[in-house]
Amino acid sequence: MPTLTPYTHDAFLAAVDTLTTRLADDDWGTTLLVGVGRGGLVPAVFLSHATGLPMVSIDFSTPIPEFNAALIEALAARTRQGERLLFIEDINDSGRTIAAIRAQLDVAGADAANARFAVLLDNAISVQRVEYAARTIDRTVTKDWFVFPWEAVAPDTAIVEDANAVPERIA
């Protein structure tokens, strides 16, 4: 059984504050936040309130094209018009979701210079890199499965199932 480690509400608020500060200190000039469902939606809402930036969402947790692939095309067009999009996720663990988003943006003709990523937790050994992270972990050392506040209401069996979906993350 994986070690389930609560990511407390206080830790979450501190992470949002850290990301808010990092965005304010950077002159890149984000114009639109994009919450990536499911895990990035709550952080994106909080970051939107903290920064005053507008937010939209896409969903990569379900294979419904109208909520991801079709929206990616609209977002790619915005990058070509010069908008700077910041995609928000809870964790960059394996990098699979971020890689999928980047690949879809590329296919849709996005200007890659106008798309960045921010996460609460960044795995230093992930195959994907992000521009902003509140905290970095190393999965060769940290095997805990972090349970974010919005996941804490799920039954432990569902959380363990999610953790075991990609066993190499926590093995």
TrEMBL record:
It comes from the Bacteria. The keyword Transferase applies. Keywords: Glycosyltransferase, Transferase. InterPro entries: PRTase-like, PRTase_dom. Residues 9-151 form the Phosphoribosyltransferase domain. The keyword Transferase applies. Pfam families: Pribosyltran. Transmembrane segments: none annotated. PANTHER family: HYPOXANTHINE PHOSPHORIBOSYLTRANSFERASE, HYPOXANTHINE-GUANINE PHOSPHORIBOSYLTRANSFERASE. This is Phosphoribosyltransferase domain-containing protein. It comes from Sphingomonas donggukensis. The lineage of its organism: Bacteria, Pseudomonadati, Pseudomonadota, Alphaproteobacteria, Sphingomonadales.
